[in-house]
């Protein structure tokens, strides 16, 4: 998804790369607090008053205190509004320079303070920062609207757009991007249509909030109460105690309460021996919100699909999917659907092979039943233990934190791009255990600053992400100041060891980091990771695969005590286990992504005429060839928060689209000699330096010489040939 106009207006500093489909659903903001914002003094004593004098304009955390944020943010919005008014009311005829470029220059103060505040709130937040975020949300939204709905400003943007013949390259793309942003917000509509859009937006906002709130109620309503401890066989004593505590807290003293998590699949199902309890847990999950308890999300699903279809048509699009994907790399729902559907036959044949193994395991234990969705994880775990016995603790001994950072991630980036990382201990930070590096280019020139905030702390949100304090821009003379965040638990003393996934994630986030670091564009709103959602995870997923490159792995995966490289036997096991159950994982994702499109490629009439959500869902899965009883979609309609509560409607496909690009590009690079500076330079020139200054498909073709295909993704996931024993 293209950035909102507000982000365009204040530069790309708020761009955060979301990174995994498990992390993308953020809780909908608490109802906006409309506390009166009294005038607060903003003067030179506030460290945000002037640009930071530290190298690269890095925020000076030796001076920044919480009380500085609010006055600086309010002053930032006010200053930005004045700048925008001056552009809109300029007496001179509109030109690219006096309108579009001036918009790019505007909002410097707001950008400066917002990038620091939101980063700190995410990485080292507390009640104060959360309260201020709640207070700011409606103000920032209103500020954004005051720009995107400013008719005088739009008239000037439109005039520049209509005279864009003389422009080319990045300038042309910026004009088109800015103009499209206004049009997509409804700037071209008459007052009657604008009123309708506003009404739809209001209802959409309240329905998505209600959907999110319902999910919390549904989790409570669908809690599974177990009377007898014996029914919990397979769980550890600690787990059982946790369930007992949860039951007590829920008013069921002496019993055991199993809470359901937000996916169809429930983690506890892999260890619960009792088949009846497994079935109860699975059904509580899969039927949630379908009228099985008090809270019913079915009417919301229908109404949301209908309202989005209405909004799309008012804005001149056939369907919501056409509207959303207009600014994506895929370009249309049809293109994205085709890419997913092309994967289905290979994925399904792998699922069938996995299913046969699971069925064989059931049979060998004398089970006289066909595998059901509540059985899959339990027996898959048994198959895994038998075929891929892997001691995670043993593996970790080869992934010591400092070695992974320096001899793994930094080393790989040095081999590919020639860059190096020099630690700077003189730059103040916002919390403990954050490392700051100056990144040096192959010729010794400085590229920018990189903050590695890899360890978990109270007040840090979950998951991993990349963001920036300053984004690159030639226009503003800024070099990038980039952050990577992760939630690695630091050992109380002695070395810290990482899991396989944590190492992979570190490579991934560095991929986003270099997308920001290598950015080489003129205009801040086109910099670095400010690209479409189906493109942004491409450069990051691409870098993940260097972790298993032989040269890289041999350089960092050494035993923390002996320094011995990881034994081949162990490595083989790691590789084999990596793709275990991948047919299931892939199919449940694709099924949800295709379901998303089914709702968001409807006309308003078709959406209004959905009678039965469950029947619609079943027919949709059938139509797409992904209706396999034992492998239900990762999210079913009534708890598909990404698309009915979050901002991923018609966008859930994006993770896999990006992975297709990553796999295809990585495979191509291997064919061209793999880890070489020549290959790195080409990737940097065509992709990593371009930000959003060029059409993403064109960027891809510039690198690859052709459009991507899904073949390499199937190889990456080990899904090319069905594994039939
Ligand atoms: Zn990511």
Give an overview of the whole structure:
The chain is mainly alpha-helical and 725 residues long. It folds into four domains: 54-187, Endopeptidase. Chain P, domain 1 (Glutathione S-transferase Yfyf (Class Pi), Chain A, domain 2, Up-down Bundle), CATH 1.20.1050; 220-295, no CATH class; 298-392 and 581-717, Orthogonal Bundle (Neurolysin, domain 3), CATH 1.10.1370; 399-566, Neurolysin, domain 3, CATH 1.10.1370. Helices cover 53% and strands 6% of the residues. The strands form two sheets. A five-stranded mixed beta sheet has the order 3-4-5-7-6, sandwiched between helices. It has a two-stranded antiparallel sheet with strand order 1-2. Zinc ion is lined by residues 17, 19, 508, 512, 537, 540. Zinc ion binds at residues 17, 19, 508, 512, 537, 540. Belongs to the peptidase M3 family.
Offer a few descriptive terms.
disordered N terminus; 7 strands; 53% helix; binds zinc ion; Neurolysin, domain 3; Glutathione S-transferase Yfyf (Class Pi), Chain A, domain 2; 725 residues; 4 domains; five-stranded mixed sheet; 28 helices; two-stranded antiparallel ribbon
């Amino acid at each position: 998804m293209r950035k909102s106009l507000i982000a365009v207006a204040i530069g790309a500093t708020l761009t955060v790369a979301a990174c995994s489909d498990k992390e993308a659903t953020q809780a909908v903001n608490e109802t906006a607090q409309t506390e009166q914002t009294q005038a607060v003094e903003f003067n030179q004593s506030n460290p945000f008053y002037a640009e930071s004098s530290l190298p690269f304009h890095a925020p000076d955390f030796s001076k920044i205190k919480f009380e500085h944020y609010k006055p600086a943010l309010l002053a930032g919005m006010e200053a930005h509004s004045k700048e925008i008014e001056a552009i809109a009311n300029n007496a001179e005829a509109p030109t690219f320079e006096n309108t579009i470029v001036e918009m790019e220059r505007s909002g410097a103060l707001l950008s400066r303070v917002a990038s620091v505040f939101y980063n700190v709130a995410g990485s080292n937040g507390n009640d104060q920062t959360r309260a201020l975020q709640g207070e700011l949300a409606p103000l920032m939204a209103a500020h954004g609207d005051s720009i995107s709905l400013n008719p005088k400003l739009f008239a000037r943007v439109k005039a520049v757009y209509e005279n864009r013949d003389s422009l080319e390259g990045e300038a042309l793309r910026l004009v088109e991007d800015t103009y499209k942003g206004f049009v997509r917000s409804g700037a071209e509509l008459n007052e009657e249509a604008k009123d309708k859009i506003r009404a739809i937006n209001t209802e959409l906002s309240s329905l998505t909030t209600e959907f999110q709130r319902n999910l919390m109620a549904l989790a409570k309503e669908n809690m599974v109460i177990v009377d007898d401890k014996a029914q919990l066989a397979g769980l550890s004593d600690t787990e059982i105690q946790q369930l007992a505590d949860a039951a007590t807290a829920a008013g069921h003293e002496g019993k055991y309460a199993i809470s359901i998590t937000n996916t169809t699949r429930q983690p506890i199902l892999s260890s619960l021996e009792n088949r009846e309890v497994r079935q109860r847990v699975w059904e509580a999950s899969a039927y949630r919100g379908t009228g099985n308890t008090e809270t019913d999300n079915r009417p919301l699903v229908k109404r949301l699909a209908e309202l989005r279809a209405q909004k799309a048509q008012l804005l001149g699009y056939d369907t919501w999917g056409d509207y959303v994907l207009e600014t994506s790399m895929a370009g249309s729902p049809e293109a994205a659907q085709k890419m997913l559907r092309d994967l289905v036959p290979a994925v399904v044949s792998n699922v069938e092979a996995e299913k046969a193994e699971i069925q064989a395991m059931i049979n060998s234990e004398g089970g006289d039943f066909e595998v059901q969705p509540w059985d899959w994880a339990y027996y898959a775990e048994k198959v895994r233990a038998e075929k891929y016995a892997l001691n995670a603790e043993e593996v970790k001994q080869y992934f010591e934190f400092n070695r992974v950072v320096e001899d793994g991630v930094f080393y790989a980036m040095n081999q590919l791009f020639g860059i190096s990382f020099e630690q700077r201990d003189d730059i103040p930070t916002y919390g403990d255990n954050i490392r700051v590096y100056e990144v040096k280019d192959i010729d010794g020139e400085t590229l920018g600053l990189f903050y590695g905030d890899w360890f978990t702390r109270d007040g840090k949100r979950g998951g991993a992400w990349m963001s920036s304090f300053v984004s690159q821009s030639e226009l503003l003379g800024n070099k990038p100041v980039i952050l990577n965040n992760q939630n690695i638990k630091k050992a109380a003393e002695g070395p810290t060891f990482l899991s396989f996934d944590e190492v992979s994630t570190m490579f991934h986030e560095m991929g986003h980091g270099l997308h920001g670091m290598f950015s080489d564009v003129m205009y801040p709103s086109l910099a670095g990771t400010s690209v479409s959602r189906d493109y942004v995870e491409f450069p990051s997923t691409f870098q993940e695969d260097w972790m298993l490159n032989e040269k890289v792995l041999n350089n960092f995966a050494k035993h923390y005590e002996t320094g011995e490289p990881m034994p081949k036997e162990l490595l083989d096991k790691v590789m084999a286990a990596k793709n275990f159950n991948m047919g299931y994982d892939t199919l449940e994702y694709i099924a949800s992504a295709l379901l998303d499109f089914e709702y968001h490629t409807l006309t308003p009439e078709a959406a209004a005429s959905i009678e039965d959500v469950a029947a619609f869902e079943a027919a949709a899965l059938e139509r797409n060839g992904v209706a396999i009883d034992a492998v239900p979609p990762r999210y079913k309609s009534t708890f598909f928060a990404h698309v009915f509560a979050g901002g991923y409607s018609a966008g859930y496909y994006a993770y896999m689209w990006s992975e297709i690009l990553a796999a295809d590009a990585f495979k191509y690079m291997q064919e061209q000699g793999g880890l070489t500076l020549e290959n790195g330079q080409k990737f940097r020139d065509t992709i990593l330096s371009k930000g959003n200054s060029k059409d993403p498909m064109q960027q891809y073709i510039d690198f690859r010489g052709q459009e991507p295909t899904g073949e390499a993704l199937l190889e990456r996931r080990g899904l090319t040939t069905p594994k039939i024993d």
